[in-house]
Amino acid sequence: PFxxxxxxxxxxxxxxxxxxxxxxxxxxxxxxxxxxxxxxGPDGATHxxxxxxxxxxxxxxxxxxxxxxAIETKKATVEAAGNGKPTYIRFAREKSPxxxxxxxxxxxxxAETLWQVKDPQVAIIACGPLVYEALLAAxxxxxxxxxxxxxxxxTIKPIDEQAIIRAAKIxxxxxxxxEHQITGGLGGAVAEVLSKNFPVPIEFIGMPDxxxxxxxxxxxxxxxxxxxxxxxxxxxxxxxxxxx
Length: 244
Hints:
By secondary structure, the chain is α/β, with parallel strands linked by helices. It is built from eight helices and ten strands.
């Protein structure tokens, strides 16, 4: 079965019910959380779910997926329908740029490298619609002579540990990108993996322990530092840390 609502309401408001009636008994219910992230825009802080990844990934038995575009969302929904596990799928409100195709590999639990150059200096590990911004940042950096990997970590739980470790070993530095609180989200999950297996300098792009506000989606992404230009700055900063 599937249930769906604004992410602020499901899983935000009914978290305990999900925990007790779904996750505790490992019941394969799928929860679709829409209007997630800052891009809810005019609806403001009360409806901007920026904590949902954190509260769902701490729940035993729960799979957590944040697709990046419409094609990936369809693939995630179809796979989740048959995976036999409680699964949370995170959706945006705004129309998102499409950066994958029907032929782009997708499997829950497996990250995909979408951008790779020879001798990359940093791995950008991103999820959700901001993967598109990460790809824009990669193009900007390439024109400045800085090579990066862009890894689409659409599944936050179970996170693809081997892909993260491999990216860190190749580059020696990481920037994480998410439209979510930095604390407890993708950045935290990546840091947990690397701190145990291959520590490297990390910079985090996401909501810096703040609530959102009303405004146009693009303006809010700019204000809170989640655009390609901010990722470029983070990459340059983490390179300085790596080389320092």
